[in-house]
Amino acid sequence: MSEEQGHAGQANGEAKSAAAPRTLLPGRTTIGVLGGGQLGRMMALAGSAMGYRFVALDPAPDAPCGQVSPQITAAYNDQGAARELAQRADVITYEFENVDAGVAALLTEESYVPQGSALLYTTQHRLREKAAIEAAGVPVAPYRKVGSLAELIAAAAGLGLPCVLKTATGGYDGKGQAVIRQPEELEAAFRQVAPGAAEGAEAPELVLEKFVKFQCEISVIAARSTSGEVKSFPPAENIHVNNILHLSIVPARVSEEILQRACELAERLIAGLDAVGLLAVEMFVTEDGEIFVNELAPRPHNSGHYTMDACATSQFEQHIRAVCNLPLGDTRLLTPVVMVNVLGQHLDGVIERTGQADEAAYKLGVVPKLHIYGKSESKTGRKMGHINLLCKDTGDGLSWVEQTNLWRN
Questions:
Q1: Does residue 16 register a pLDDT over 60?
Q2: Residue 370, Cβ neighbours under 10 Å: how many?
Q3: How many domains does the chain have?
Q4: pTM score above 0.85
Q5: Closest by alpha carbon to 327, among 195, 225, 197, 177?
C-alpha cells in the first residue's frame, strides 16, 4: 500500500467513525469553528440566532468571527489550542479547507467532527479532487499531472492550447496558476507557478487543465446531514474579474434543464463523497450544454452568499443544520437576486452610499442588503463584504451595479 493510499484509508476510517449521526439541539450545544474569517462569522451569526453557542480558533486577535463569538487566539497548527477547542465545543466544523493535517487528526480523535477529514484530504489536492469527482461519475475538464517543464510541454501537446497550469495544492482567487495560450508561453508559465523548479529545485506537483470554452460559470451549494439527507440551493451564475468573484446572478441565465442537471450533479457528488455539511461545486457550462466540474469547496462559499437574503434558509444555517443533524431547511429561492462582492477598493464608496438615500435602487425596485465582514485591514482585491440586491428581475440588480460606478476599478 502506498503512503497516499494509507492516508486515504485513515481519512476514510476517521470519516466513518465521525459520521455516526448525533443530533445536537440548539440552546444546549457549543459549536467550535476552526478558522475565524468571514465565513465563520456568518456561520456564527446564523447559528446564534438559532440558539447555538460558538467558539472559534484563529491566529488573528481581531478576527471577524471572534468579534461575534468567543475566540482562542493561536496558530492553526497549535495542537494545544486545538485540544482546548475540542474541550470547549460539543461539535467542531471548519470554515476553510487548508486545515493542518495533524490538527485535523487530533480533532477527529478527541472531539466530534462530523465532517471528518477524508474530504479535506481530497479537496486540499487538485489531482485527488479530480480523481474523486470522476469516481463519482461526474465529468471534469481534461487534465494532466505535471512535474517538470518537459512534462508540461508534453502535456500541452496532448491536451492542446489554451490551457491553465495550476499548483496541485494551495492557491485561490487566481493565485498559483497561469493561463497558457501559445507554446512560447510554456516556460514562463512554469517559472511563474513553480519558481524554484526553474533553478533546479524539485518541482511541486502541478496540474495542467484544458481551457474549456464555456458559455458561463455556475455553482451549486449542496448540503448533506450526518443522517444522509441531501438538498441543494438554486445554481448561481458567477462572473469573475481578475480571477476574483465579482457577481453571482440567481436564477442563473441558463435553461431549466441545465439548472436541474447541475443540482443533480452536485447532489450526486456530495452523496458519493459521503460528505457532511456544505459542498460548493463550481462548474463550466459549454455552448452545447455540457457541464464540467471545475473545483470543490467543502464549506460555505462566496457564491452562496445570496442565500442569506434571497432564500428560505441561508447556506450558513443549512451548514449548522447539517453538522448538528437537524432536518435540512427549505432551499427555495424567494426572490431573484444579484450578489456583488465588496473589495477593498470599493469599501469606502459602499459605506458612504449606505448613508444616503438610494434613488437608483428606488427607481429600479432593487433592495440592497449590505454585509460587512469586520476585517481589520482593507486592501485592494481583498473581500471586505458583499451586497445582496433583491429584485424583480436580475437585470435590474445588474443595472444598479452599473449605475453606482463603484465597481469600475
A1: no
A2: 13
A3: 3
A4: yes
A5: 225
